[in-house]
């Protein structure tokens, strides 16, 4: 086992407990559930239809023009990304529904858009949410050598250009996840002890193979059988779809953590960090465009990334109302509350961070 385990400071009767107490009071006083509401259900239906309708249009032959078919796949790529951050994301955090079977059902349904929930939960829920921006523990900043997303990664000459080429590499995120990444994760997480037994590892592998057969079967094999276009045409359509998906997903998550304000703490020699877990999240996370209702709706509330990291067991539709509580509490206890005012300013700041990481070496 080579998994790195770090320890935070014990939770104190300060920011940590106060913010939790106030959030609980908000739901109790307003007599509302922390799970999805009617608006969330309606959004779910809309996003699912945004994915299914284009597929039906070309698989039934109602749309035959190759360029229009490509356009429909582009719409499916956008829908895939927003289904991931709105529906699947909440379900795999267990906060879409109060009924665990509903969350499990939606989680398994995410296989139909190419996301294997078991590996996603280990990477995102366990590693990223626990060890945010910690080198060697947070898989979200464990980038290919051509990218440097942490100041503690080795600096290479090629990184000087990453502020230009990184945006194109972001498009490949979804392609890599739906093809090779999840297979690699099964073996990597098994070695690290995140998957507890060889039997469990074999079970995950068999399940992943089954779902990939279904996924590529209905998206590529079935259309190439039913329609006049070749299998290579639909492979191209599939790749085109995932360029949209990958870029959208990458941007949402990179603007939250790879930013000039965000810290990249390192543990001491004993493996301990100097802050509590909740305070650590405040130092390593940034909000953006929280006043933009359009961004909030489409991005599944993940522009309220601070609230998400502190309150990942609460459906994202509540984040805008919870943000003032978190911000007020942070100010009271002298804890940072980072936020970029607009989506555009966040993109510029991320670009500057990529530029800096391509040039500044940490001793």
Can you walk me through this structure?
By secondary structure, this protein is mainly α. It has one domain (about 5-355). Helices cover about 60% and strands about 5% of the residues. The strands form 2 sheets. It has a two-stranded parallel sheet. Strands 3-4 form a two-stranded parallel ribbon. The longest helix is centred in the middle third of the chain and has 29 residues, at about 200-225. The radius of gyration is 21 Å and the shape is globular. The model has no long low-confidence stretch (mean pLDDT about 95).
Helix content: 55-70%
Q: Estimate the strand proportion.
A: under 5%
Q: How many helical elements?
A: 14
Taking the sheet with the most strands, its summary is: 2 strands, parallel
Mean of pLDDT: 95
Structural class determined from secondary elements: mainly alpha
What is the tally of beta strands? 4
What spatial order of strands do you see in the largest sheet? Answer: 1-2
Order of helices and strands: EHHHHHHHHHEHEHHHEH
Q: How far apart, in Å, are the first and last alpha carbons?
A: 28 Å
- Global outline: globular
Compute the number of structural domains. Answer: 1
Question: What is Rg?
Answer: 21 Å
Low-pLDDT parts are none
